[in-house]
Amino acid sequence: MAELKVDYNYLGRTGLQVSNLCLGTMTFGQGPGADDLPGCNEELSHRILDRYVEWGGNFIDTADCYYNGGSESVVGNWLKKQQRDKYILATKVFVWTDKSNINSQGLTRRHIVESIEKSLERLNTDYVDLYQMHSWDYTTPIRETLLTFNDLIRCGKIRHAGCSNVTGWQLQQIVDLNRELDLNPFITLQQHYSLASRTDEFESFNVCKLNGIGVLPWSPLKGGTLSGKYKRGEKPDLQDGRLGWVAENEKRGTVSRPSWIKTDEDQRVWSILATLEKIANSKGKSMAQVALRWLIQRDVVASVIIGVKNLEQLNNNMAASSGWKLTKSEMEELNEVSMPEIPYPQNQIFRLNHGRKNNFLPDCFVGDIVD
């Protein structure tokens, strides 16, 4: 058996063990894709998957909309040459992938059932370990969605269900309705989370902590920002990753995501980068490794989703998984410099409860370290 080089966590309140770094495959595939960014061809994608497995990684995340199914097909062509039960495979449903069919979108029973069949075919498997709502659907009753997910679990097409990109009240409604209807609970929340994006600590992650839901951060390096490769006042090149594409395209009014202009003008981001650089230099690590390690040591996090476009990026990121830790003082320093403005009413609640015996301040917010 190959030497394992990564650490493992339980996936939510289950007995499934997953590597604490999950390989995200949004970069796998070619042709029109996410934000029209160029992706990895199949040969390179398979080399990345092979190397990820050599590191001991066992958790792979994709979605039906990545390169319009192309990512799932790339993963499926690799998977059919592997021992299927060694890997925890996750995919998602929501996005309108067939523009010729008005019902090929959202979280209706019809679309979910059709989508899982197509995903299973592309992935060359008869089940996925984790099937996730890619977003909240305001047009479909959540009861219909949850009953459909539960039926898919009962018939064996999916083993567990999760969600992504939802608010705190939406996640609580999912939890409560699953419990009320005696359905299988959702086990994960995949959310945008990093040193530069911490607002989910105020609501969503407290729902996770109270209900045993594992957090799966996506964009843990904020589109490459936290890797330290971008410099203040120097617009990234078009080919220089996601933020380079954003910097080039935001002037056209085509970008709805956080912009390079806002990033360049955000003093908090540059303060975070300065602290990351200092800690990285003192530990002989890269800034990206320190940023990933901070997430790994947050107590709500089950696995951090990394996206890479070459083997160098993969090896650098995977080295954050095990063998070293940030100290309590380093975690606290990163917590302090990255602390977002606390909104009302959370600021009022925290202020009035501060100093009380056994007061409830969410551990994820104050920065517990996971050994």
Automatic annotation (TrEMBL):
InterPro entries per UniProt: AKR, AKR_Detox_Biosynth, NAD(P)_OxRdtase_dom_sf, NADP_OxRdtase_dom
Oxidoreductase listed as a keyword: yes
Superkingdom classification of source: Eukaryota
Record flagged with keyword Chaperone: no
Gene3D superfamilies in the cross-refs: NADP-dependent oxidoreductase domain
Keyword vocabulary terms for this entry: Oxidoreductase
Domain NADP-dependent oxidoreductase: start-end pairs: 21-337
GO cellular component, one term: cytosol
A GO molecular-function descriptor: oxidoreductase activity
Family statement drawn from the similarity comment of this UniProt entry: Belongs to the aldo/keto reductase family. Aldo/keto reductase 2 subfamily.
Entry protein name: NADP-dependent oxidoreductase domain-containing protein
Source organism: Patella caerulea (Rayed Mediterranean limpet)
